[in-house]
Each structure stands twice: as C-alpha cells, then as structure tokens.
Design goal:
Largest sheet: 7 strands, mixed
CATH topology: Metallo-beta-lactamase, Chain A
Distance between the termini: 6 Å
Number of domains: 1
Structural class: alpha/beta
CATH class: Alpha Beta
CATH architecture: 4-Layer Sandwich
Length: 239
C-alpha cells in the first residue's frame, strides 16, 4: 500500500487505512447493517471514527466501539455533545464544525457541508444532533479523499474541487434519501475528480441507484474518463 486503502463495509460505512497503519472508520454501522459481510461484522479496530451526522445508520456502533478501542471520535459540535451525554468520555470526542480542520490518527480531516437532516429518535421524539456534514481527509503522503456523507448535489462541491486536490470522491447514489446517479455524476464534474466510489445504495429496496447508472450518466456528461469503483461490501480499494 503506497498511500491508503478504503474498505467498504456496506451502506454508508467505510474504513480508511493509511500507509502508517492507522485506521479511521466513517459512520460505523455494523450490527444492524444488512449489507455488512459476516466476517467484518465484529471488526471494530480503529484509531478514529468520523461521523457525518446523527442518523442511526451513521452513528451506528460508535458508543460500543469506544468501549472496545482507545479511539477518537470526530463529530459536529452538537452530535459530540449528544455522544458525551450517552457516556462517551469527553476526552475521546473532537467537536468541530464546517470549514474547520483537525489532526486525527495522523490525518488532516476538514469538515464540509452536506444537504441532509440529522437527529436521533428517542421516546417518539427527535433529538437534534447538529447539521449533517462530510469530510475531506488528507492522508500521509498528501492524497485527499472526499467523504460526502448523505447529501444532495450542491454548488459547494465546485469550491471543494478548487480548494482541494481530490484523489477520490465517495458519493451516495441511492436516491430517495440522498442524490441519485444523475446528480452524483454532475457532482463529479463539479469536484473535478477522476475516481468515484459510489455507496448508500441497494441496502434497502427504496435505494434504487446503481453504479451502472452512474457510469451511464457520467458518459452523458462527457466524463467517461472518470473511474467508477464498483465495489461489493467487504472489498478494498488500495492506492
């Protein structure tokens, strides 16, 4: 591994491993995630967790992972406060907000905007957990990966492409709760990326987007040179 490796666990859950051996989970939903392969369901090893927003399928097993590993958790301010109220040690939580950058597990993580909602269901009430977000992570060696989180296409993506030399964009394509392949293809053009990893599709019947449809939409935009990393849950992309 020269720079980094990304393993897709299914749905919106990934783990990034740097060339220094550090592991960062993004939205670790494992136990209840029907897409996670059995051999990965109990694999919680990590040095840090980046949470994009407060929905159950993204916060996932964060509170139990912190009991098993000595890791740090990065989250938007309100979600970080909520996690501390759930018993996560404050010393393990890095609270931040959009536009900020923190050092974690040997990487630089910049929090980005996302067009989505966020909240936790408790006793038939919704607890606000701050805005939804994404991250641009710079790994040792300088490669930068954009983890968009759950989002629609947005004009800010063009600015992210100008501000960062992105090696890979990780984008949702499922439709219904996030953008669809057509909008994700246009997002690739705004970001200026040459590689895209699609996710957040196929987990449930309502998530109808597919990598094949993303490729088709990229071709329509004259972006046939953009590589679509069509992975199965459990697969790893290494750079």
């Amino acid at each position: 591994m020269e720079n980094y490796a990304v393993t897709w666990f299914g749905h919106g859950t990934l783990r990034l491993q740097t060339r220094d051996g550090k592991k960062l989970f993004i939205d670790p939903w494992l136990a209840g995630n029907p897409a996670v392969p059995d051999n990965l369901r109990g694999d919680t090893q990590c040095d840090a967790i980046l949470i994009t927003h407060g929905h159950f399928d993204h916060v996932g097993e964060t509170t139990s992972i912190i009991d098993e590993t000595d890791c740090q958790i990065v989250a938007i301010f309100e979600l970080g406060s909520y996690l501390s109220w759930q018993g996560v040690p404050e010393s393990s939580i890095i609270q931040m907000n959009k536009g900020g950058t923190v050092e974690v597990a040997g990487c630089r993580a910049t929090m980005t905007h996302a067009l989505h909602t966020a909240g936790v269901l408790e006793d038939r009430s919704i607890v606000y957990t701050g805005d939804a977000a994404g991250y641009i992570v710079e790994v040792p060696g300088g490669k930068q990966i954009y983890f968009a989180g759950d989002t629609d296409i947005m004009s800010e993506m063009e600015l992210y492409g100008q501000l960062h030399d992105l090696d890979l964009a990780v984008l949702p394509i499922g439709d219904h709760f996030t953008m669809d392949p057509k909008r994700a293809a246009l997002a690739c053009r705004l970001l200026g990326v040459k590689k895209v990893l699609p996710l957040h599709y196929g987990t449930f019947p309502v998530l109808v987007g597919t990598p094949a449809k993303l490729k088709e939409e990229l071709d329509k935009l004259g972006l046939s040179d953009v590589e679509v990393l069509e992975m199965k849950p459990g697969d790893t992309h290494t750079v």
